Amino acid sequence: MKVMRWIGLALGAALLASCASGPVRRVSEPTARIQQLTVRADGSWSTELRIENFSSMAMRFDQVDLALSVAGQDAGRLATQPALSIGKESADVITVTLTPGAAAKLAVADALAAGRGVDYTLKGTIDATPEEAKQRTFKIDRSSALSPAPGLSGVLR
């Protein structure tokens, strides 16, 4: 009987000790995608870039440098220093203005006129600083598509 009591106490102590470590603090690679692209009257594009933080801690996003291609055509770079803090497992949107290359501009204008979507690719880096840690550079390589937003002229989502 005393042996069983000691085994029970030992298991209880081990269980309590395993709970003392606290939550796991994990840094995961963030992602970026275009949430909306708006063709402005002057021909430039306003891109709403959604940055997603999958880490179990908040991160400050210091620099974004992404090459954008649309329909296989080089559109230019989405480069900014947002100094934006995003909470754990959350996302936020920044707006970046871009003067696109001629071929990409024509591809988007053609897609909008025809009422069809267009593929895009983002390639580059995002610099982010996790809570109480040093800055890290994350590589981004994402392909997706945008479709015309119903009722909104010049807008792809």
Automatic annotation (TrEMBL):
Ranges of residues in domain Late embryogenesis abundant protein LEA-2 subgroup: 49-129
One Pfam entry name: LEA_2
InterPro entries: LEA_2
Keywords, comma-separated and alphabetical: Signal
Keyword Signal: yes
Residue segments, region Disordered: 137-157
Signal peptide as annotated in the record: 1-20
Domain of life: Bacteria
Protein's name according to its UniProt entry: Late embryogenesis abundant protein
Organism: Aerolutibacter ruishenii
